[in-house]
Q: What sequence folds into this?
């Protein structure tokens, strides 16, 4: 198998040069109009890794793209959040005639030094979402974010002074917090599809435990890969629907299976632990007690 064609972009200045833009006004942060970006067909077929954060809102990019299992034409504003060292790529499938618009904000981690955002930026799960889990904005939401970006632009294009960094950082935090809110809205407004995913998760875990050939517990990544979505997005989606992460769903289903075996078979606790993917029965017993407040034997005794 050939290795994917991955191009690492080490600096914001390099990105500007690659896209035919003037040099950035600051080496560690850049904000510019997406309509001025030059995209070649050769570039579109590559996978990329950035050494900086990339936040963008794009509309009518002039190309239909396939992201995951869906095709998107960018009639709405669509936001992407890419963290440093993430591999990403897009697949163009058809050209369209409408002019592209939007903005791109790039922030090098060094710009965040000695600020609270240096640590808190890691709490925003959407930086770990795959490209096909983009944020689709309503007109009102897009206008709100555009206003915040306009404030960043005022500072960026003004005379940078000792206050500029803190002002820009506070605006970026506001941008991220609103984006977090809008993602939660997206989870709620696409409930039908999301509940289908929840049903698929339940079935995948059930089938996994029913298959005697499986060794070990199903992982969150196993479930995410089967659904063709990122593990972080899956856990965020499930958390919004049920209050539980993917790992918690796996444990809940495991406890259900354990209760079934303890109450309907004469298998020993060690045998049940082994069948459920545990190498050591003590680990199984510890998890069972944490979830039920009973040891496996105490639970079984209730049926005798």
A:
């Amino acid at each position: 198998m050939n290795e994917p064609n991955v191009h690492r972009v080490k600096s914001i200045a390099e990105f500007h040069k690659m896209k035919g833009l003037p040099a950035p006004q600051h080496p560690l942060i850049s904000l510019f109009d997406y309509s001025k970006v030059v995209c070649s067909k050769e570039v579109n077929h590559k996978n990329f890794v950035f050494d900086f954060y990339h936040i963008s809102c794009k509309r009518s990019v002039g190309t239909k793209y396939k992201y995951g299992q869906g095709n998107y034409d960018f009639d709405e504003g669509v936001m992407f959040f890419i963290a440093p060292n993430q591999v990403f790529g897009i697949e163009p499938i058809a050209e369209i005639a409408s002019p592209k618009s939007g903005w791109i904000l790039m922030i090098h981690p060094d710009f965040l030094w000695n600020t609270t955002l240096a640590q808190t930026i890691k709490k925003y799960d959407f930086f770990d979402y795959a490209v096909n889990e983009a944020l689709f904005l309503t007109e009102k939401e897009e206008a709100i974010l555009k206003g915040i970006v306009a404030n960043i632009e005022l500072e960026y294009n003004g005379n940078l002074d000792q206050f500029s960094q803190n002002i820009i950082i506070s605006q970026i935090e506001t941008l991220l917090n609103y984006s977090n809110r809008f993602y939660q809205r997206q989870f709620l407004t696409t409930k039908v599809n999301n509940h289908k995913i929840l049903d698929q998760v339940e079935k995948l875990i059930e089938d996994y435990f029913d298959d005697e050939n499986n060794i070990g517990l199903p992982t969150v990544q196993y479930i995410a890969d089967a659904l063709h979505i990122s593990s972080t997005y899956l856990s965020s989606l499930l958390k919004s629907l049920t209050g539980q992460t993917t790992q918690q769903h796996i444990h809940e289903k495991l406890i259900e299976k354990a209760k079934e075996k303890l109450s309907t078979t004469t298998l020993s606790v060690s045998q049940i632990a082994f069948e459920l993917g545990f190498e050591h029965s003590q680990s199984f017993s510890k998890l069972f007690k944490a979830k039920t407040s009973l040891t496996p034997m105490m639970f079984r005794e209730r049926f005798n």
In short: The first helix runs from residue 12 to 18.
